[in-house]
Amino acid sequence: MSLAAPILAMLALWWFSTGAILVLGERSDAARRLAMVIVSVLALASLAGLWAVRDVTTPAGAYAGAMCALVLWAWHEMSFLFGYLTGPNRQPCADNLTGWPRFRAAAATLMHHELAIAATVVLIGVMSIGAANMVALQLFVLLFALRLSSKFNLFLGAPHFTDQFLPGRLGHLRSYFSPRPAGGFFVVTTSVIALVAGALIWSAATAASPFEAAAFALLGTLAALGVLEHLFLALPLPDAALWRWLLPARDPRRSPDL
């Protein structure tokens, strides 16, 4: 089986879904509420779809499982960026906070979001018990791991994080970022993700069945994109250009809550 199709599919889904969420984040309150209702319906449908393909071991089953996981992940991303599900702390970091108190304050800005993702992992895991098609669970867990790694790196030190897409309603998060040279944690986490990506792509190239080839290729491409997103944190790469052209120019007179 050619690996081009699943690799290109994951690249397209990554770019389109990220761009769509950024565009929706720029819309009015009413538009965001409508988008949240629509994606909530799609998320429920994805749970049903996940159950329907749990024993489908064809390339189509792998694609379907991946799509279900991505829709569920989009629900979490939108609920966070739209300001609906973040954390109990919505205040900027105090200047005198360091060490453990600063970490606790930073964690409180995201706590509800992270707990919701963890609960979804448990839900998908329960639904996948005994399933032959584990792509949805594997992909969602990989997304969660990549997101946690990125957040820890932002907290510990990331010199080139692009925050121009961060909406005003989440502006307090900037005060918890550490704009300093990346250190050992960045090197270790990025290297581990790169090794995982390489192992998954190798598994796809040597897979025993078309289903396994598609599944490993989808997961490997996502892991490789995780490496790229980590490099965006440490290197002066123009990552914003990938989506900036989709968005209208920001009006400085706009309310920071929009």
Distinctive features:
single chain, 258 residues, mainly alpha, 9 helices, disordered C terminus
Q: What order do the helices and strands come in, and which of them pair?
A:
Elements (H helix, E strand, L loop, with lengths): L3 H22 L3 H24 L6 H23 L17 H10 L2 H17 L7 H22 L27 H22 L4 H25 L6 H4 L14
Helix pairs in contact: 1-3, 1-8, 2-3, 3-5, 3-6, 3-8, 5-6, 6-7, 6-8, 7-8
Structure overview:
This protein is an all-alpha fold and 258 residues long. It has one domain (4-244). The protein has helices at residues 4-25, 29-52, 59-81, 99-108, 111-127, 135-156, 184-205, 210-234, 241-244. Helix 2 (29-52) runs antiparallel to helix 3, helix 5 runs antiparallel to helix 6 and helix 7 (184-205) packs antiparallel against helix 8. The N and C termini lie far apart (46 Å).
Distance between the termini: 46 Å
If you compute it from the alpha carbons, what radius of gyration comes out, rounded to the nearest whole angstrom? 19 Å
Beta-strand portion reads: under 5%
Q: What's the tally of helices?
A: 9
Backbone shape: globular
The string of secondary-structure elements, in order, is HHHHHHHHH
Rounded mean pLDDT is 86
